[in-house]
Amino acid sequence: MTSSPAVSDKPIGIAVIGAGYWGPNLVRNFQGSTAFRLRWLCDLDVERARRVLGDYSTVQVTDDLDTVLADDAVQAVAIATPAGTHLPVALAALRAGKHVLVEKPLAATYDEGRQLVEEADRRGLTLMCDHTYCYTPAVLRIRELLHAGELGELHYLDSVRINLGLVQRDIDVIWDLAPHDLSILDFVLPPGVAPVAVAAHGVDGIGAGRSCVAYLTLALNSGAIAHIHVNWLSPVKIRTAIIGGSKRTLVWDDLNPSQRLAIFDRGVDVATPDELGAEERHDMLVSYRSGDMVAPALTEREALRTMVEEYARAIRTGSPALTDGRSGLRVLQILQAASHSLTKGGVMVDLEGESER
Amino acid sequence: MTSSPAVSDKPIGIAVIGAGYWGPNLVRNFQGSTAFRLRWLCDLDVERARRVLGDYSTVQVTDDLDTVLADDAVQAVAIATPAGTHLPVALAALRAGKHVLVEKPLAATYDEGRQLVEEADRRGLTLMCDHTYCYTPAVLRIRELLHAGELGELHYLDSVRINLGLVQRDIDVIWDLAPHDLSILDFVLPPGVAPVAVAAHGVDGIGAGRSCVAYLTLALNSGAIAHIHVNWLSPVKIRTAIIGGSKRTLVWDDLNPSQRLAIFDRGVDVATPDELGAEERHDMLVSYRSGDMVAPALTEREALRTMVEEYARAIRTGSPALTDGRSGLRVLQILQAASHSLTKGGVMVDLEGESER
Amino acid sequence: MTSSPAVSDKPIGIAVIGAGYWGPNLVRNFQGSTAFRLRWLCDLDVERARRVLGDYSTVQVTDDLDTVLADDAVQAVAIATPAGTHLPVALAALRAGKHVLVEKPLAATYDEGRQLVEEADRRGLTLMCDHTYCYTPAVLRIRELLHAGELGELHYLDSVRINLGLVQRDIDVIWDLAPHDLSILDFVLPPGVAPVAVAAHGVDGIGAGRSCVAYLTLALNSGAIAHIHVNWLSPVKIRTAIIGGSKRTLVWDDLNPSQRLAIFDRGVDVATPDELGAEERHDMLVSYRSGDMVAPALTEREALRTMVEEYARAIRTGSPALTDGRSGLRVLQILQAASHSLTKGGVMVDLEGESER
Amino acid sequence: MTSSPAVSDKPIGIAVIGAGYWGPNLVRNFQGSTAFRLRWLCDLDVERARRVLGDYSTVQVTDDLDTVLADDAVQAVAIATPAGTHLPVALAALRAGKHVLVEKPLAATYDEGRQLVEEADRRGLTLMCDHTYCYTPAVLRIRELLHAGELGELHYLDSVRINLGLVQRDIDVIWDLAPHDLSILDFVLPPGVAPVAVAAHGVDGIGAGRSCVAYLTLALNSGAIAHIHVNWLSPVKIRTAIIGGSKRTLVWDDLNPSQRLAIFDRGVDVATPDELGAEERHDMLVSYRSGDMVAPALTEREALRTMVEEYARAIRTGSPALTDGRSGLRVLQILQAASHSLTKGGVMVDLEGESER
């Protein structure tokens, strides 16, 4: 990491590239962080960039990426442009010696993502993926609980993310919404547990030319299952995940601010054969737990603020961000296999080598 | 139907076979119906049958099916025994000239179910499947709406039925819970629309030796998709279906008595190529509707009461019940294909001939 | 209690008087209890009584109370007739040496209620009021928690019971619905804490000639406040109580079966002057707790079943029922004072002697 | 209104006074409005003002009100200082010829509020009260519905606003929270309908030295009732209002973004005597409607943005704002009468002359 730019306690000079849907959120959070000093907002549409900053801002605006990358006061960039442009923009930034934060997904393809990871590695620069949901207090707590074994062994994870959403021009609902669920899955799974195959089913419905409703089923190496429902056409908004473990089950309802997490000490236990005498082995011994539910108190904190601090920490320490380029790459691998499965009528596709099972 | 037993306006003599989980509900509803006269409750465990009737009943109890079938005052039976026994019990009843109502699923296999349907046809007797949910005011209304085209063309149906349920000894969660969703699907789909293939994924989790969490994906002949999530391990109880159409989308929440149905005039429209000029064809034209939601008033009525009345109507008129043996057979066909898919790692299985795609 | 009728382990012979709205529930629960043997259902409208029992019952029907009271096999009665008839019916039963259970409210007036209590005392008979809600698992747990001091000192209790309810001919919404809340309050308050005054506001609205929406405010001797909102005109059904204590706050949502009770370790603490130094006394020290919420597991059990068992226990042991006549009397006292307050424009009325403050 | 400052289409120069809790929201919204040009943020604590603006702002900061008022580029001010300072700050601004927007409540007392209204009248300047909730899409729609008679005649309004809130040092929960409900009530009531008396009950609970839980009951001149529950000690956050009318009933749940308004065609009708024949008059004829519920689509729009536009409109046209000083005064009148009632044990206090009834 010796080749990383010298970083002191001074605020890190940052530029935001892209003033569209997500850029304004980055602008607001970098402005609000003492760890950064926002130097530029760059967008091909300068007027749009100006509108984002408003009439009272001292931040510079430009439509020229080279100008930004040539500015020595800029040590890092945050890229919120369409996924198809991530590769050239991020590569240019890395080659200019800048740390890079990229909006999800990391890149348009797994290969493009791998180029970025390799380039960052080669140069000892931070490459981070803005998997925003991972930095919500709820998901951070879920990660803690799963890593500490509080739920026991994972049995299943069921995630629903549906809404009347924007039908994207260039990507289907899997590439649009599932990166959230997949990055969360990647983030919370305990070490050693990982997806090994994925099957995807989808339907267009409205003639959009791409799936607007889709289901992903992931097989994990532990024997557990993960299932993701993403949907642009639902008039009701649901963002829920149920994570079933051998000891407890957790329900995350992201739209219920007063009770985002609920941990249930309820479940079903089956005695294993080893615990049973000869005769009992004929019968399955099932018992039911019906214990209390605990909704842990969570601090209310904007996820992006925590994400921005993690970016600063990664830059300053040279150690990988919690959602580094590699996590972005793992998400891309699953997305790509899911697309493959979709074209093959839902067959289960192995992640390694993406072979059909 | 000339061979059907003569039926007058007198109450139909009925016997309930099976005093386990479901039998008591049938007993209560046949007792409450003026169309029937409950003659017998029959169970191998006579004491259990007595307990179901209580200490104040004039209904006869027996453990001998033959006694019941030999009673000329009995014109019809209702069978609530384990699925594996449906074939012999129902066959015996039909051969004794009795009309038959069978608890879901119709039989343990498609072939067994077909034998029952053929036997009933041959004898001109009513064979009905107790698909109870179809007779809830909510599902009856959904059927009306879909048949009348009120939702437009069906895009997708997403059903979730999860709970901390009883882990069954002999069947997996698909055979236990999905018959509800599949019978509802069969019931509400407009004429001409039907499933053609199914894929199933499941996980055991607790070492029960069978799937405790499962997902079914059905391809319909119209291009639409239906998806069913059934789960015995969820600490929270959810029974919801979202039915997305081209004009409106309906949400059914069976556990919300004050708002079981919600019809949303919200959605996404895409202009079809024919409506577009040459240049517009390059761009997809997407528009969003964000209209009101209407929660129709539903009468509160016990589904079993309506089901019992439909059984009487079918017996009296000789015309098929709304959920006749054939509907039970169609459900069995999908269940069997789903089991096939499950053993093949989730591959899509055609319903006709059950061939893998 | 030596004058009480000899009671052995044999089932207690019981008669239900009144086959209207509530009677059928009593009939069903006495039939289901091994502690009782239901002998009679008595109603002025014999046909109505027959319909309640159905076509398969061995229970006797009559329209003649004297016949019931003359039956030596009847040791106890349960009265579910209109409140205006409670006095004569219950008095007759007591004078015939029968134990008496009365549907809420105990009687039409405080004086009538007192006559019943005195008569039962004189004869050593059980007089119990069917305050059904007190026997729900949720309220039993609330009582436990409050009696054990788990919530700390009680600050306030806020109860809402609203619905599109039946507009009664003879009583207003306070006399119809508030007995539930008042009996619960009486049941759960820790020893030594009791209401001392009540103010009532109401509005008719629809020209019914009596209040259809009303609010009761009760001052407790501890300085705490209790507030009750009862409403016949609400299109939404709400049955909630919030019980705020110095240590914890409990929320009871009777219509949320999956989470009827929620205990919050959240609140506001103010340092008392004694804990403060001279300078700090100028400033109030407020601190906020934001702890977890626990939703305790509750067994699902029909309240009436528990109530019926408590009736048997009280009869068998000769000790007062948890909701004995005196508790019914305390509820009547508040109802009467509330009616007084209502006619006086909402002035606070003392319960002792019912003087306006 | 000829004496009002000349107002062109140019942005109105504005200064925000007070950078505490509410000031930042005003700053953000005035910055976002093309109708205004934010010139100053003024606070006795200049550092606090700087923090509110952030490190990238061109807006001027000062701790000197006179400097702001002496600036000719400032035509209007927005005051978000503690209520006790509203009189001197707003008076100074009006005397300097500036239009004035004041955070609720208008002033610390009715008399102070009246001075402001009179001063603004005298000078032909806009005086507006920031009753923010009135500008939410939901409340604007409620006003429309009530003014158009869509609910029929108003029977009751029940408002609940409870939360674990900040215990204020100088005011009780009524003065802190009820201004929201009272300003909404004032805003939505149809012309001619108005409160005429108020009763208040409260409890301190935690030793804060002022009411932390309180209930207001308002008698309206139409015979209807309004009831408000405000509470700083509730661990659950509820913001609901039920508005019962003779034709329909509306439920507003401000915390349910997917269904903030629900209009129920459910209710109770009582035939009026005129409609009845001689014999029927003995009996009350009650009928129940059980119609659909409609949840109207509402645009999502920040209330403050609409409020800011209304301020601009009022300034530009010289016509009163929807929530002008007089509406703020009516709210103060009720608050003061409520405080009076509180000290008198909850007696109903007339609003005119504030006499006890």
Automatic annotation (TrEMBL), chains A, B, C, D:
GO terms for molecular function: nucleotide binding. InterPro entries: Gfo/Idh/MocA-like_OxRdtase_N, Gfo/Idh/MocA_Oxidoreductases, GFO_IDH_MocA-like_dom, NAD(P)-bd_dom_sf. It holds the Pfam family GFO_IDH_MocA_C3. It comes from the Bacteria. Residues 140-249 form the GFO/IDH/MocA-like oxidoreductase domain. Residues 13-131 form the Gfo/Idh/MocA-like oxidoreductase N-terminal domain. This is Oxidoreductase. It comes from Micromonospora arborensis.
